[in-house]
Amino acid sequence: MDQAIETLAEFHLVDQVDGAENLRSLCHGGPWWRTVHPHLAAARMASAESRLRRRLFELNTRRDSLTALASVYTARPQERAGAAETVEVVDALRDVISLIEQASAECEHEMITCQPGGGRPTEELEQAVARDTALLDRGVRMRTLYQHPARRHAPTQAYVERVVSAGAEVRTLTDLLGRMIVFDRRIAFLPHHQRRGGAVVLRSPAAVAFLCGAFDRAWDLAVPFGAPEHAPVAVDDLRQVILRLLSQGLKDEVIARRLGISLRTCRKHIADLFQELDAESRFQAGYLAATRDLLRDTPAS
Question: What are the HTH luxR-type domain coordinates in residue numbering (predicted)?
Fold first, then answer.
């Protein structure tokens, strides 16, 4: 009996009694069934078939869309990976610090840094000492470039003394290409152009190789940090760059910021240059420097 009811229900020829009538059926020990006219059963099957066809159409449409996406996905996997893996913009300083600490811990061969401006903040130097000495203890080569004014910054002098005694190499240059840290010539950290404390993390081999090449050229032109006999050379180099920037028409504020020196120090050098050249204006100083072949090539960014 149950099998017969199940077969009839499958063809929509019977259905259960519901509502108040079903309450009466429950009192007799089970559900009651009633017969359905074959025409009505056929209509119900047609409605179910229509819903099924709509569902099949939706599934086929989605399958076609996924097939089209799959062809794009498999055709350019390198470009897809490159966009996700070669450049990363990090806004928060704490996240930047975490990434640098991770890269430092994974560094095996070399770390190079470029630190434009004058001396670095004391707190930043204190944090760097532990990280950098740990690198040096593992046999990692460390090279750092500062601008010449950092020589006169006491906290930077103390930091350099500690890391150099541990095996680091530090040099100074008049003009640097910009702030950066590179680990194993594999991953580079550059400052965010808008968010203070943020960074751009580069993993593109071509971009990192370009930055390392620029660093190596600047390194070859730089002066070892802390050697007193090199101080006159550093000052001479500084004035050469000031002359070049003056000849380009840059203002005192711009020159001072670019060279990492105070505005007062910059103007003192400019006044000394004017006196040495016997010039009364920037234009005249640039002209006299050019006619006397004083604007020789100098390391620049």
Answer: 242-289
CATH value of 86-226 in 1.20.120.680, 3.40.50.360, 3.30.870.10, 3.40.50.1980: 3.30.870.10
Identify which of 299, 279, 292 has the alpha carbon closest to the alpha carbon of residue 233. 299
Burial of 192 (0-12, 13-18, 19+ CB in 10 A): middle
Within 8 A by CB and 6+ apart from 8, the residues are 14, 33
Residue 99's nearest CA partner among 125, 131, 121, 130 is: 131
Encode pLDDT of 7-65 as tens digits: 777 777 787 776 545 545 455 556 777 887 777 777 777 777 778 888 888 888 887 77
Distances in whole angstroms, Cα of residue 79 to Cα of each of 72, 90, 298? 11, 21, 39
Q: What does the alpha-carbon distance between residue 201 and residue 206 come to, in Å, rounded to a whole number?
A: 14
Would you say residue 80 has pLDDT above 70? no
3-state SS track over the chain? CHHHHHHHHHCCCEEECCHHHHHHHHHCCCCCEEECCHHHHHHHHHHHHHHHHHHHHHHHHHHHHHHHHHHHHHHCHHHHHHHHHCEEEECCHHHHHHHHHHHHHHCCCEEEEEECCCCCCHHHHHHHHHHHHHHHHCCCEEEEEEEHHHHHCHHHHHHHHHHHHCCCEEEEECCCCCCEEEECCCEEEEECCCCCCCEEEECCHHHHHHHHHHHHHHHHHCEECCCHHHHHHHHHHHHHHHHHHHHCCCCHHHHHHHHCCCHHHHHHHHHHHHHHHCCCCHHHHHHHHHHCCCCCCCCCC
